[in-house]
Amino acid sequence: LICSACGKRFNSRRYRPDRVYECRQCGEDLAVEEAGKISRSAESVVSDWSEDRQGGTSLQNSGFIGDYELMGEIASGSSGTVFRAQHSALDRTVAIKILHSDRSLSIDSVERFRREARATARLSHPHIVKIHDVGVHAGQNYIVMDYVEGRSLGEHFEDRSLDVSQLVARIEEVARAIDHAHRRGIIHRDLTPSNVILDGGGTPRITDFGLAKNLEGQDLSQSGVDIGTPYYMPPEQVLGRVAAIDRRSDVWSLGVILYQGLTGDYPFPGENPIEVYHQILHVDPRPPHRKNPD
To answer: How many CA atoms lie within 13 A of 19 on its CB side?
Structure first.
């Protein structure tokens, strides 16, 4: 195999024509020297997924990202898409988050994506989704993490499937995991019910550290108010006082999650972000027992 960009050659004893191979030196796709390029790029794989989703059909050829075969889409957000994938050699199921290939994405978006990997990789806790790998394939950034089969805490809130004792127990486990992150200098900054996944046994796993702040270094985002999910944002985040965001910000968000789980409503409701921000800054929430006497 040869890299068309830097010219470096590699020997491959287990070459497969349906795989995309990447240069370890510059990150570009490798090609079979006698036969030209191999397979297709990661960007075309994600493009196929997008087209299939729009057309309502399933993808016939899943494609590969490095050693990982994409098996199906799990979720898609504003910056990236998460796929279920299989490691071909280890026979292990993982989740891969791939940054969208939209060329309009800013440098900040790419850095935020990479920051999620760096922040989470520093953490090792049974209630935090673990990062296994990070890299760039065919020009696209990706993160490989634990695959957690289950439902988000938000989904459990919607169907009221957790009683009070179960809810309190799950929140306590999340709080201990967040304390683990804080002790290692990491603030999550976007704790929401959708970022906590409960596996089949009911064990919570925290994900999405894309907005994390490192207490030991510079602030990792300068976007102010527009960073975070409005209902769960503490006052300092609403006001854009980025330097004031610390461990207490995550504690606030966790309190909002607990309130929502107990009452079925937000402590600071509103029809739009401006109304929510006003509630957060100027209105005390109703006591939980008045919304849910039980």
So the answer is: 16
Tell me the residue type at 211: L
Can you give 125-155 as a three-state secondary structure string?
A: CCCECCEEEEEEECCEEEEEEECCCEEEHHH
Average pLDDT over the chain reads 76
> Is 190 a known active-site residue?
yes
DSSP H or E segment with residue 133 = strand 131-137
State which H helix or E strand residue 96 sits in: strand 92-99
Find out whether 155 and 124 touch, Cβ atoms under 8 Å.
no
CB-based burial label for 182 (10 Å; 0-12, 13-18, 19+): middle
Pairwise pLDDT comparison (29 vs 292), residue with the higher score: 292
Q: How far is CA 203 from CA 129, 167, 187, 210, 291, in A?
A: 11, 11, 21, 22, 27
Residue 202 CA to residue 234 CA, distance in Å, equals 28
CA–CA separation, 67 and 86 (whole Å): 8
Q: Which of 29, 190, 208, 250 is catalytic?
A: 190
Confidence band of 5 (pLDDT split at 50, 70, 90): low
Structure tokens at 286: 């109703």
Q: Which amino acid is at 15?
A: Y
How many whole angstroms separate alpha carbon 115 and alpha carbon 120? Answer: 8
**Start-end of H helices in 160-215:** 164-183
Q: Let me know: does 207 contact 129? Beta carbons within 8 Å.
A: yes
Q: How many other CB atoms sit within 10 Å of the CB of residue 47?
A: 13
Amino acid at 45: V
DSSP state of 22: B
The model's pLDDT over 168-190, given as tens digits with 9 standing for 90+, comes to: 999 999 999 999 999 988 888 88
What residues contact 293, with CB distance under 8 A and at least 6 apart?
A: none
Threshold 0.85, pTM exceeds: no
| Close Cβ partners of 4 (under 8 Å, ≥ 6 residues apart) | 28, 29, 31, 37
